[in-house]
Amino acid sequence: MAARVVHLVGSLPGGDAKEAMGEAVARVGPFLSYLPDGETGERRNWVISMVEALRSHPDLEVVKAGDWSDYDKVPRLRVRRGHTFTGETVDLGIAGAAQAARPAFEALRDQQHASSGAAPLQFQVGIPGDIDLALFTFGPAGALRHRRPFTDALLDSMRRVRELYGDDVVFQLEIPAEVVLLSRLPGPARPALARILAGAVATLATGTAPGTQFGLHLCLGDMNHKAFGRIGDAGVLVDLTNAIARKWPKERPLRYVHLPLAHADEPPSPSPAFYAPLHRLRLPPATRIIAGFAHEDQDLDDQRKVRDLVDDAVGVQVGISTSCGLGRRSLTVAQAALDRLAVLAQE
């Protein structure tokens, strides 16, 4: 059997992008199709740095303090009375980080291609969902009302990155809020909400130029390496994935869907019933399924069994990943996770 694809969700430990990407290529390079810059420094905690930067925005003010030490200790902002909050006043730092990483990425890409003869790596850029950004900034009450500025800011970021990288970039849409919200509903109520949430995700992709390439990272949260949501089986992931696939815009290739099959610091379930719903996945033939189950705290033999359970449920050989990024872990633990990915991919 051919080696499997390894997928890196985004954040990686390292002093800078060159160091993080170099570590990843050294440990799992032969199995990669896409390479993120590692989202190092203040970016390792997903959108926290983006929201924190908005504290000084002239049109916003803090109404609730929060230190991000847990999911119930998140700050809340609001639009100042008499002010208007628009996307053109927001720079999320995405394009700047992509530009800074470009020399190191291109050098690693060329080196990897020359040594392996495999297809050149593409640059992977994490894009938080616009609803997710609005939710973490304004809370549930303000998320829908103030979603549009984030939509515009994200679209501008993707446009600027694509000007830098052309067809060598894939944008990974990251949507924990949608997954967690859906997970909290009873089964019969999920399809209707899944359609609504899927429409919002697809709308963000539709705003990009034709030919823009995407991946999806469904997420259960990983703040401080603790999960925000919990699922009893993979059914929630299947419901949302299928709904998004049905609404996905034409001419925006969906290269992969990453499914979180572990809960942050908790290893994946050994039960076949947890993975059984994966047989209902309905994706375009060209869309790769990435199983986010690799976990350094679970016995390797048990990890092999989980891998085989996922393959059997899906009906194809899946790609392998962790449930989320590795930036919230120590260097030693992250290296162990990367090594686990390499072992699971080449067996």
The biggest beta sheet, please? 7 strands, parallel
User: What gap, in angstroms, lies between the N and C termini?
Assistant: 8 Å
Helix percentage range? 40-55%
- Across the major sheet, the strand order is 1-4-5-6-7-8-9
- Structural class of the secondary structure composition? alpha/beta
Task: Give structural attributes.
single chain; 347 residues; alpha/beta; TIM Barrel; seven-stranded parallel β-sheet; two-stranded antiparallel ribbon; 11 helices; 42% helix; globular
List the helices and strands and how they pair.
Blueprint: H1 17-28, E1 34-36, H2 48-53, E2 60-64, E3 76-79, H3 94-116, E4 122-128, H4 130-143, H5 147-165, E5 169-175, H6 176-183, H7 190-206, E6 213-218, H8 235-247, E7 254-260, H9 272-275, E8 288-292, H10 300-314, E9 319-321, H11 331-346
Parallel strand pairs: 1-4, 4-5, 5-6, 6-7, 7-8, 8-9
Antiparallel strand pairs: 2-3
